[in-house]
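Repro:
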Amino acid sequence: MTRSSHKRSVPCRANLWPHVWRRRPLAVVLILVVLGLLIRARIRPSQGSDHDRYHNKIFTCVRVIDGDTIDIAVRDGRYPRTRIRLWGVDTPETDKSDRGAMYYGPEASAFTTSQVDNQPVRVVLAPSKTRGLYGRLLAYVYLGDSETMLNEEIVAQGYGYADRRFGHVWKERFETLEQRAHKQGLGLWRDVTPDQFPAWRQRYEKWRQSTTQQ
């Protein structure tokens, strides 16, 4: 057998795929689907939606950042922990902030620490929006499996403000609790002055005063 005839007797690899496709088309389709899923999983792991992963589930709070921000012990993408911004409330900053400590910031942070640090918390998410501007999870945090909501207690006891910048399901409730705490002089409301408000709250107060004078 000559060299040239030997080469012609070896099947061309380019012809193998159409041959397999003709004989076992369903098997080929199945292989393609499986390969596609494996490639997709390696490129972008599927972790489910925020509601699937967090909503109404209990986790351990492993760190308190400040009065309205905590970390829980569950991975969030490339981060080993999930950072939660308490939805609907705003507490004064502490010295950990780039803006520096604000009036009643240490007290607010100490209160949140006393409630949830190294404790189980139940995470409840809003029906639609689940993430804030910086990618933090927006949540209502309950103490363990109880019905006590940390967000609500912060406002009710005067450790923070009802955040009027964004709409959410408990917005009116938090505003009512803040008015009650203000009237009773609880927490920060005992001695806070308007110049000690957060910047957004100062703008809100100026707007409110201007509308009442019209």
